[in-house]
């Protein structure tokens, strides 16, 4: 904080708050380890890629792979503490924690299930929309048909009146 004063009158002071927020750019590693979003297909690919990476590390250095998995578990735990909903499986306790949300996911089975659910909802909505379009088109064609019949009836009435008037005056002999 900077304080400025006036030389002539020392009772006038100005306070300026000069605090700046530094935003760091995300590194590739941060982006790679971030499992956020609603695109389950992309998240599933990310999880599979991470599992392959851990498997290749496990072949070379098992301790490092264990450490990475431990870090992943800690990140998940911290995310849950922060209030981020996690969709993951706890292997060591044979227990599944299934909090269905799109904020943080890293379990392949749950992501597949979520993807299927989304596709099913998409199909249902598409079916409803197609049905609605069909009913709208059907109603429109019925209304158009009714309009055409009414216009034709009006034309017939006008023609009949003209013919009757012409017969009455003797222009048409029938």
From TrEMBL:
It comes from Anisakis simplex. InterPro entries: Rrp14/SURF6_C (IPR029190), SURF6 (IPR007019). Belongs to the SURF6 family. Residues 116-130, 157-174 have a biased composition (Basic residues). Residues 116-174 are annotated as: Disordered. One of its GO terms (cellular component) is nucleolus. It comes from the Eukaryota. Residues 25-87, 105-163 form the Ribosomal RNA-processing protein 14/surfeit locus protein 6 C-terminal domain. Residues 131-156 have a biased composition (Basic and acidic residues). GO terms for molecular function: DNA binding; RNA binding. Keywords: Nucleus. This is Surfeit locus protein 6 (inferred by orthology to a human protein). It is found in: Nucleus. One of its GO terms (biological process) is ribosomal small subunit biogenesis.
């Amino acid at each position: 904080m900077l304080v400025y004063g006036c030389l002539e009158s020392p009772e006038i002071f100005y306070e300026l708050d000069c605090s700046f927020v530094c935003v760091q750019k995300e590194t590739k590693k941060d982006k790679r380890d971030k499992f956020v979003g609603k695109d389950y297909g992309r998240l599933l690919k990310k999880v599979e890629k991470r599992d392959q990476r851990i498997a290749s590390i496990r072949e070379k250095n098992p301790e490092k792979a264990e450490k990475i998995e431990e870090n992943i578990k800690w990140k998940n735990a911290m995310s849950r503490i922060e209030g981020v909903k996690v969709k993951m499986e706890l292997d060591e306790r044979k227990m599944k924690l299934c909090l269905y949300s799109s904020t943080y996911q890293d379990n392949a089975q749950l992501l597949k299930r979520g993807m299927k659910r989304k596709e099913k909802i998409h199909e249902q909505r598409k079916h409803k929309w197609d049905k609605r379009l069909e009913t709208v088109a059907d109603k429109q064609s019925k209304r158009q048909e009714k309009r055409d019949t009414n216009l034709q009836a009006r034309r017939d009435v006008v023609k009949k009146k003209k013919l009757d008037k012409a017969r009455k005056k003797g222009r048409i002999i029938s």
